[in-house]
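Hi V.,

You were right to ask for the full record rather than a summary. Here it is.
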Amino acid sequence: MRRKYPDQISGLYLGDGSPFQRVVEYFALSTSDPKRLCLPSSFLTNVHFRFAGALHLFYIEDKAAKDGPNGLPVPRIVRHGFKSLRLSLPKWLRVSCYFLLNKAGWKLYPLEASIWTQRLPFGLYMKQYSRAPNNEANTLGLIEKHTSIPAPRLIDIWESDGTTNIIMTRLSGVPIGEVYHLMSYPERDRFAKDLRACVEQLRRIPNTTPYLICDSLGSPIVDHRIPCGKGGPFKTETEFNDHLASHVAYSFSQLVELEKLPTTRNDHRVYFTHSDFHPSNLLVEQGRLSGIVDWESAGFRPEYWEFTKGMYGAGVEISDIFWRTFGREYESELELERRLWYLTPFGF
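Predicted structure:
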């Protein structure tokens, strides 16, 4: 999960003397003398852009070759040691220790911090939740109990100021989106085979909730693909489909008829899914799947959802992962989903 590329930007300044602080800066080019100080040709600028992109790929390849594997798996003794602390130390003392580790993480791993997650020392991660506070923690327990999928292991969980916090182990590897273009075709096939094996294991997790489509606890699902990013729980697939169209003036079946969308079934098998196979959530090491992270949206969904959600917003290279993993089994569902994405972008 460590982001190595590109290196942190420093020492760059714009023409007005202000520092270049972000990955992208928007600005307008102008000149006081168009004849003597003409602006650069847009054609030449575009050529430079294309060469720069190609050169950057060589830079990434060189860095990957030099740096080797990204991190080491957390030793079992460390994992069990922290779990023992959970049983032996009072909550206030554990939480104090975690926040001290969090401060250390900010200093040691500044490039691996986000609004909700922070890498910590000792091979750990800290994550905060507000939308689905207990789903990921419960899901990690299900993964550990029912599968051998390489997922983070839950260490501790607590609530503070209305926010749920969890401590979990860190996985080795880099996001597939950063290195997929460097992988050989046999490596891509092997990665897809690994991912398919994980999907098959997920599908064996039993649904013990009273609902058909829900999160791991039988609560509403959280997913940026659906209207308002949240919905359910649902007792039938028809209810779920209607929710996908709930922000327009028609039911799902009416929307399909009016927009001449491809027809769909409402009797799909429902399985446990990760529901967010974004390329940043799939880790690879030495050409093999080394981890799957970010289980916040996990839960029970129609069988096609893992595939179509992975294709949601995916480029050509990343789409190749899911074609290799799932084959052509859900082409009709993907066609319908793509039309729905166009009609209702981002579920709103």
